[in-house]
Structure formats: structure tokens, C-alpha cells
Amino acid sequence: MNQKPPPYGYGSGGGPSSSSNNTTIGTLSARAKQTTQSMITTLRPWGELLDLAALSVPYKYDEAMAHLRHNLSYFRANYALAVLVIVFLGLIYHPVSMVAFIVVFIGWILLYFSRDANDPIVISEKVVDDRIVLCLLSLATILALVYTDVGENVLVSLIVGLLIVGAHAAFRTTDDLFLDEETARRGGLVSSAAAGNRPPSSYTPI
């Protein structure tokens, strides 16, 4: 007896839901690869960051704030990675908590920060609202901190990391650091009007 071929979109794997799940996994994998590549390309050479000869005490508060804004824009990826490493070190004696933190962090990157408005999450052919994603990720983060009992460790590590980053950014001179116009504009160092009136150039010294 001849059997009818399965309807389009169905297969031995369980129908359209299986195809949708595969598509979601493929999208997340592609997004993870793209995010990783983007983070790697935005990292500045660590030799520039750790150049002790470039450290000097600012003469006044305004100079320190100018250094802070410039360096936070220039070394933003390096600073973010440094803070994460400090947080991981704070959890080194709590391996279960470290695994939970890594999972939550990856969830935030893949499901929220690496997406734009035109890239919604689709599950079983239904678009998931960003507010639901934000609530679920926030709840997962709170539960991970509460049930692993390392909220205090994470908070102290974050404060230490931010203090180190802030001190370095304030004392690191910026004479040899050059930002492109887009990065400078995002960091609030150049206004859009000023950037539009400036002749085209590859780099903008600050």
C-alpha cells in the first residue's frame, strides 16, 4: 500500500516545530560567532593598555575626566573583559556559581545585547516580546545570585573591577590614542554637528 508523503514542512524529526527549533539554534550559533568576532575586533592591543610609561597624574579634575571619557571609549572592550576576569576570579572558589554566572552571561549576550530591533526571537513561529526576554533574563540572574549565595562576592568583585578601570582610565594619558569619528561620537567626545562639519578623515585626535 502506497503511503502519502509527509506534508511540506513535516519530517521524521517531528514536524515544523523541529524545523523551527533547528532554525533558532542556527540563529543563536550565528549570533554567538558574530558577537565573538565583533568583541575580538574591538579589543585594543594589550600593550597599549598596560603601557606604564603612559601613566601620569592629571593636573586637575577636568583633565582626569577628559582622560576617563576618552579611555573608556577607546579601551571599552578591554575594560569590559578585565572586569569580567575580576568577577570570575572572585568566584574561583565557587565552581558551581561560576558555571551559573557564565551561563547567565552568555544568555544576556545572545538573547539581548547582541540583537537589534529587527532581529526578534522566534519560538514555534511566534515572536517573543523583548520585555518578556528582559524579564526572564533578569529573573534568571537574580535566581542565580540568590541560590548560589555569591551575590556579595559578585558585588565586591564588580566594585573592585570598576575602581581599577576608573583609576586606569583617569591616569592613562591620551596623547597617543586616536578614535575614529563614530567611536568618538558614541562616547560623547564629538557632537554630531561638529562631526558633520569636519572634513572627512580617517582618525580624529582628541
UniProtKB/TrEMBL annotation:
InterPro entries (UniProt xref): Prenylated_rab_accept_PRA1
Domain of life: Eukaryota
Compartment(s): Endomembrane system; Membrane
Keyword flag Zinc: no
Pfam families associated with the record: PRA1
GO cellular component: endoplasmic reticulum; Golgi apparatus; membrane
Membrane-spanning residues: 79-111, 132-148, 154-171
Record's bilayer topology term: Multi-pass membrane protein
Chain segments carrying region Disordered: 1-25
One record GO biological process: vesicle-mediated transport
Keywords of the record: Membrane, Transmembrane, Transmembrane helix, Transport
Functional description taken from the UniProt entry: May be involved in both secretory and endocytic intracellular trafficking in the endosomal/prevacuolar compartments.
Family to which the UniProt record says this protein belongs: Belongs to the PRA1 family.
Protein name stated in the entry: PRA1 family protein
Source species: Noccaea caerulescens
Lineage: Eukaryota, Viridiplantae, Streptophyta, Embryophyta, Tracheophyta
